[in-house]
Structure formats: C-alpha cells, structure tokens
Amino acid sequence: MQMSNRISGFQCSPIRRLVPYSRDAVNKGIHVIHLNIGQPDIKTPVEAIRAIQGYDEDIIAYGISEGELFLRNALVSYYKRYGIQVSADDILITTGGSEAIQFVLMTLCDPYDEFIIPEPYYTNVATFANIAMVTLRPVTSSSDDNFVLPSIADFEKRINKKTMGILLCSPNNPTGHVYSPEELRNLLELCRKHDIFLVVDEVYREFCYDGKAFTSVLSFPEYQDRVICIDSFSKRFSMCGARVGAIVSLNHEVIESALKLAQARLCPPAVEQVAAAAALTAPDEYVENVRSEYERRRNVLIKHMQRIPGVRCSLPKGAFYFVADLPVDDAEKFALFMLRDFSYNGNTVMFAPAEDFYVTKGLGKRQARFAYVLNEDELVMAAKCLEEGLKVYRSEVMGIRD
Ligand SMILES: Cc1ncc(COP(=O)(O)O)c(C=O)c1O
Fold first, then answer.
1. What is the tens place of the pLDDT at every residue in 10-56?
2. Distance in Å, CA 396 to ligand 1 centroid
C-alpha cells in the first residue's frame, strides 16, 4: 500500500529516531545515558500527583474546547506574578505546547505562506509547518558568536508578501540563548512595520541562569495585537506526559480562530488539566529549586565537555540544552557508532545530531544537541563516554591519528 507523498516528505524526529539502536544497546546490557531528549529526572510537584490520585469523578468526560476555566484562571494569576496582565479569554488550553504551535501556524497561515525562524530551531516545528503547508524561512545563528539573535536586517531581508510572522523560542531549544528585552522590542518594531505576528515559544521561561531575568513577549502591551505566546506545563513542572500547554494572545481574533481547531479535537486532557492547575499551587521554591538544579547540571556538563579535545561549546544562558561542535565528519554517524559499536565501562551516551535542527541543508552536520536533564553523576559519565568514544571513532572510523 502506498503512503501519501506528503508523509514521505516528513522527517523522523532526530531526537527520537535513534531509539531502536538505544534499545538494542540496552538489550546488550549497556547503560544508555540519554542526553538526546528533554525528559527531566526531576519529580513532578506533589500537588499535581495528589490531584491525579484524588480525581474522583465517576466519568472522565469531555471538557470545553478552550480548556477548563479553573485552569485558565490559575494561569491568569501565574502570569500576574510575571507582571503580565491577561484574562482567561486570552488563553486557549492545548494538548501540550506542540499542539499550540500547530494551531498557531494553521490559524495564521494559508498553504505556502511563510514564517521566519532563527536556526538552529526546535526541530519538531518542521513537522508542524509541513502539516500546515507553511514554508520556514531560516535566519542562521552561529556557534561562533554563541547563537545570538541575527541582525534585524537579516530578518527584514526575508520578509515578503507571504510572510505571516516570526517564530522565536526563548529561552531557546536547542541553543540555550535567552532573548533580551531590546532584541524582542526590535523584532516587535519590525513586525509592526511589516504588519506580521511575533510568536514566541516560552515553554522554558523559568530556566534562565546566571541571575539573568526573563522577559516575556507578553510584557509589551503596545504590540499586543501581533503577539502570541506558546506555553506548556511539560518542562516547568516536569510533567511532560500530562500534555497540557496553551496559546496566549490578547488578539481575540487569534484565540477565536484557533478555537475552531480546538473544537474539532474536542478538548484537552481532562484529568491532566486538574493536575496542571494543582502544579500552579506548588510553592515558589519548587521551580526555583529545579532552576538552580539545572544551572548546576549545566555547569558540570559544560565544564567536562569543554575539556574534551576538539569539542566546542559555550555556556548556554537558559533552557536545558546546548549545541556543541564535535570533531567528527558526521554527527549522525557518530551518534550511531556510540549506540551500536561503542561502550565505556558498560555505558554509552545518546544525543541528538543537529543537522535537522537547521532548515538550511548542510548546516549542523558536525554538531549535536545535548540536554542536561540528568543528575551530575550521569552527566560526568556521559562526558567521559563521549571523550573515549571520540578517540575510538576518530582513529577507527575516520582514520585520524591524534
Ligand atoms: C521549544 C519547545 N517547544 C515546545 C515543546 C513541546 O512541548 P510539549 O508539547 O510537551 O508541551 C518542546 C518540547 O521539547 C520544546 O522544546
């Protein structure tokens, strides 16, 4: 049977497509350290777990398509703590931030419309754009200057009649860059000039390091008609499996239009919305402890990675990822080698080759994205495995004598 041409053009996620090889490694008795995926080992707030345990409805019924009012009201109070004024009507609850991105692209774009995105970017956006038949126009940021935002002129050059908006991610997955208020304001001005939207994925909002404060795109009320925020409970409360996210916008046409998509998929997960609202009642220390734990883990992994000959990476400012240049011919081949042909004292490491985090073909071939979501012992062992793996790969596969 033939599958659609459309689906054959879609990518398998570079974060997940090596999973069968990691399963084989595990079956051989090898401990695989997962730096490929942002699945934290941090406990979900006990308030959320208890809410699920205490769910005592007789029927797990459909809820309303925009998401339960108790959750939207809880989010209104949460945003207020960031100085952001929104109402429950400005929020559409989605099945994770993933659905929020899809809904936004479908809501703003007709087939073959364009969205500008800095690359490397959150690779699953490629599939969401494919579903919506939207062309992603990349603006390349570089490891040479810590992946700072490319110039406004670079963005402007890519704007044409089909451009509907710019999609940012801050703090950034995969680079760890956090956009400054000035960068956001300059982009907002550009968006106003060309009458397009600025969509910012802020699912890592709490995870900013080195004392740096976070600025939300929602804190610029003078641009509110063209601002859309993507949000999610997955990372903030280590509840990735709950699948609760949100679209937040003071532009009511956006929320009302996206609601058509939300109605067709009926409602977001019912029990998990109860858990999400309960997570928002966790004491402030919960998120602060998680943030400082990630900061420690970042410091450990970066310190050990920077000592590996030929590896180049800089300290990310936020989220829990970074992109490293590796001294290999092809990061995907090296990732496969690590899972299939290599172990160090019974351990190996899995990471995400970075090529598919770029729209531009050929970029990122020698780069990989690493997530520092595991405990320090695992991170130290992962860096050791990489160092030893690189030695073997370079000599046996690349034929290089270091
Ligand atoms: C930048 C970014 N946006 C959105 C998502 C999707 O999150 P979820 O669908 O779990 O809310 C992720 C997940 O890793 C992400 O890294």
1. 988 777 788 899 999 999 999 999 998 877 889 999 999 999 999 99
2. 37
